[in-house]
Amino acid sequence: MHRPVLLVPGFLDGPASFHRMARHLRDAGFETHSIRLTPRLATCSLHDFAQHLAREVDRHAGASGEVDLVGFSMGGLVSRLYVQRHGGADHVRRLITLASPHAGSHLARMMPQEATRQMRPGSELLTDLEEDVEVLEHVDPVSLWTPFDLTVVPGASGALPVGTSESIPVKAHRLMLYDQRVLDRVTELLRE
């Protein structure tokens, strides 16, 4: 039996952004929950989103007390922050991030929201997370990213410095949620 899978959306996204992936995972036998991070305009800190994620994990973890997390874009960074700073290492078995700005994105320099400022290369938050990145090894992390990303710039910022990192040549950032290679790889990783 699989652990529940929480799908964590990106900036300005909601549960609908994971529609295809959630269906694919359910068809493969997984219990999935597409969550909504609020406020959607990311006017709060990524820490606020991580606390929201902690509540969602508590709600869906079930008897095992564990979940798997799949985070897209900002949602992957929120998931990482939850694991490293908000007690998630005790509740997450596997963390999979899709096109998440682990080393920041230059595009975030053009956005004024608090959360987007934290996603800029060299931000205080990203620098802090690099201090003890080895904490992530506990959750068997996998980062999937595309070199053609024009949202997470450069695309290689989507690679975590620990765990498994895989480049999949998807033609655009958002297509990471729909590309069959990504869907199949996420399914395979969750079965391990």
3D architecture notes:
Strand 1 (5-8), helix 1 and strand 2 form a beta-alpha-beta unit. Helix 2 crosses helix 3 (74-85). The model has no long low-confidence stretch (mean pLDDT 94). The protein has a 6-stranded parallel β-sheet with strand order 2-1-3-4-5-6, sandwiched between helices. It has helices spanning 19-27, 46-60, 74-85, 114-117, 124-131, 180-191; strands at residues 5-8, 32-34, 67-72, 92-98, 142-145, 164-167. It has 192 residues and is an alpha/beta fold. The chain is globular and about 40 Å long. The chain has one domain: 3-Layer(aba) Sandwich (Rossmann fold). Helix content is 31%, strand content 15%. The protein has 6 helices and 6 strands.
Biggest sheet: strands, sense, closure? 6 strands, parallel
User: What is the 3D shape?
Assistant: globular
Q: Write the CATH homologous superfamily.
A: Alpha/Beta hydrolase fold, catalytic domain
Give the amount of beta strand, in percent.
Answer: 5-15%
| Element order: H for helix, E for strand | EHEHEHEHHEEH
- The CATH topology corresponds to Rossmann fold
Helical region count?
A: 6
Q: Looking across the biggest beta sheet, what order are the strands in?
A: 2-1-3-4-5-6
- Uncertain runs are none
Annotated CATH architecture? 3-Layer(aba) Sandwich
Task: Output the radius of gyration.
Answer: 15 Å
InterPro entries: AB_hydrolase_fold (IPR029058)
Protein name: Lipase
Quick recap:
Helices cover 31% and strands 15% of the residues. It is built from 6 helices and 6 strands, in the order βαβαβαβααββα.
